[in-house]
Design goal:
By secondary structure, the protein is mainly alpha-helical. It has a domain of about 60 residues. Helices cover about 70% and strands about 0% of the residues. The protein is built from 4 helices and no strands. About 10% of the residues have low confidence.
Length: about 110
């Protein structure tokens, strides 16, 4: 195969240099832990999740469709629309974080 890396035990394939298997496993563990605690999230985390949903879907999806289909930018237009949603989410989460900071600072 032209690779100088040692093979993965039990296979003839070379080991992945980035440890992709470990990364995928870690992501699944994180998703599982997140889902397990879905009903027990503190209110601040639930609000952040809602803000993220609003930023990506109602704010980001229409520009993605508009740029991708109506303006005929295809994949680049979809990416621009999703970037719009990402930027809106960043602004909303920053404002929410500042609001939480002000609330916690005003409490005795």
């Amino acid at each position: 195969m032209g690779s100088t890396r040692p093979p993965v035990p039990g296979t003839s394939r070379p080991a992945c240099p980035c440890g992709r298997r470990g990364l995928v496993a870690a992501q699944h563990v994180g998703v599982g832990r997140e889902c397990a605690g879905a009903g027990r999230r503190p209110p601040a985390r639930r609000s952040g999740f809602r803000i993220t949903l609003v930023g990506y879907w109602p704010i980001g999806r229409p520009p993605a469709w508009l740029f991708g289909h109506l303006v005929d930018l295809e994949a680049a237009g979809v990416r621009l629309g999703l970037l719009t949603g990402l930027a809106a989410t960043a602004v909303l989460l920053r404002r929410y974080n500042e609001t939480l900071s002000l609330r916690s600072a005003s409490r005795p």
